[in-house]
Write a sequence for this structure.
């Protein structure tokens, strides 16, 4: 499915939809109180084209997590050959972290038995959703189809609050199934949607790619706002930096998103100029409800 045809000023429509269904508030997030924890250290059985284990390097170990003053945690890690984070590998230590804190889990393609095991320690699950089988195989190297992602997402929702994450341009900066993913999620039900944008990362197979054009990203955000008028839409932490980020944040505001993680100063100024009421949060965006 392609981006909607131009014509009516879609930005005005998006802003109207947001104001009608979700008010004129905008939430900015600096998640300093949430610590990302890897259950596998720097290890991952996959060599994903966009990551290549790079992002695991910036996460704390489960042992280090117990020595911090974080108020919440993102429990994540590398995957096995089936795309599953080994969520049950440190449950006793995770249970200690859970006391008085909130846990956001990145679980991958776990099964029902694993989900039931971690359910007592889950506040929310962040689930990477993909709408194109070719993308799944090229990026992750997994022999799965979109139907497998649909089934896993539906299963997880039976036991926990699940926030799907869509990475725009995941397939080397090219759109490949993003609109299909959006409309599939519309049919499945979605509490909130986190939109990410590919960061071409040094040392990965996509290092020399370019992120998707800002016009494409904006078009998707506008379609997401139209398609999910009552659903909070967040611009997540994973997106390119520099001038691309500054312009994207401004466009996202005009497209009717509800929350921006680590906003640029220009976005904060624009929100004020647009008359939006800014709220600030200091934990992972997935914990919020609006």
């Amino acid at each position: 499915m392609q981006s909607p045809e131009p014509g009516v000023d879609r930005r005005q429509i998006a802003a109207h939809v947001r104001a009608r269904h979700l008010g004129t508030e905008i939430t900015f997030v600096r998640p300093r109180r949430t610590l990302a924890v890897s259950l596998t250290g720097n290890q991952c059985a996959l060599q994903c084209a966009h990551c290549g284990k790079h992002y695991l390097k910036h996460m704390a170990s489960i042992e280090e997590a117990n020595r911090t003053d974080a108020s919440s945690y993102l429990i994540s890690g590398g995957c096995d050959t089936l795309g599953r984070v080994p969520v049950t590998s440190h449950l006793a230590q995770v249970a200690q972290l859970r006391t008085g804190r909130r846990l956001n889990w990145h679980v991958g393609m776990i099964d029902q038995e694993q989900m039931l095991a971690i359910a007592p320690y889950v506040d929310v699950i962040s689930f990477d959703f993909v709408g194109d089988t070719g993308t799944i195989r090229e990026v992750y190297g997994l022999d799965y189809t979109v139907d497998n992602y649909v089934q896993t997402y539906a299963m997880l929702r039976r036991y926990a609050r699940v926030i799907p994450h869509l990475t725009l341009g995941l397939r080397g900066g090219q759109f490949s199934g993003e609109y299909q993913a959006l409309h599939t999620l519309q049919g499945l039900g979605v509490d909130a949607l986190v939109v990410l944008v590919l960061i071409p990362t040094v040392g990965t197979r996509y290092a020399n790619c370019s992120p998707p054009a800002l016009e494409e990203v904006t078009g998707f955000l506008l379609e997401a706002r139209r398609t999910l008028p009552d659903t909070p839409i967040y611009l997540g932490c994973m997106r390119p930096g520099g001038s691309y980020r500054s312009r994207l944040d401004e466009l996202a505001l005009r497209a009717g998103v509800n929350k921006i993680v680590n906003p640029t100063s220009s976005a904060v100024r624009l929100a004020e100029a647009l008359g939006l009421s800014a709220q600030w949060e200091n934990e992972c965006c997935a914990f919020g409800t609006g």
